[in-house]
What we know:
The protein is 22% helix and 26% strand. The protein has helices at residues 27-30, 76-79, 83-90, 109-115, 200-208, 222-245, and strands at 14-17, 35-36, 43-50, 73-74, 96-104, 118-119, 132-138, 142-150, 160-164, 169-172, 178-182, 189-197, 254-255. It is globular and about 45 Å long.
Amino acid sequence: MGYIKSAALEETGYVVLDRYNKEIDPKEWLDIEYVDWKSSGDTRFAPLASAKGEIECNGFWNHKPPRTDKDGVWIDSQTAIAPTLTERAQEPGSNVGRCRVIELQPNTYADALYNLHQDDNNRLNPDGTGWVVRGFFNLTDDKDSYFVLRHNRTDPEGEVRIALPAGAQLIVDTQRLWHAAAHYGTEPRYCLITSWESGPQLDEYIAKYNGQEHVPSVEVEQDVLDAGQAEQTRRIAARAAALAARGQAEKAVMSEA
């Protein structure tokens, strides 16, 4: 039967929406409660919706009964502080699974390449239902930062780097694409991440905000690209050697975050 997927994501695996141009009080992401949860860098997460409405970030399949990343339960204590963020996550009308704000500490392009991962969005997702993808709404004005997307973790061919100013909005099939953020600066980056079920509602939302399947890639000096690729290769080899010394094999880089 196959899953219901968005045609807008078929070619590239991502779309960039119109920039969000309304003011949001930073207290909406600064005053909510965060938990330590590591994903592709030095991160914390503040959940707005979770498996049971608790302030935790576990994959829904780790709960009893286990289920896929759908039917998230909104956390009243968090959504009361972040009503605009909650409204943005609910606007498409699609089924929402996990919804969280990520806090990412500064890193580099080389860090981002090493941290590239795919998300395990569709574990236990029944065939014939909507494929789960993720929306990323950048909250802070990170003009020098960018989101890195690849079809192959270690192959830079076709790499796309998407700019992350305040208001940047993109939807990504993160189980298909390898992804991570290169975040330059001195302050943390904050971004709203929402798991959405693909279907007519999400398609209409993408069309409403003029989803673009191709955007210009952020320009990065070739020596930075080359050095980042070399450092990724070095770190992956070093990790594999360390695991081998302990009699362990490298696992697939699949994130539950």
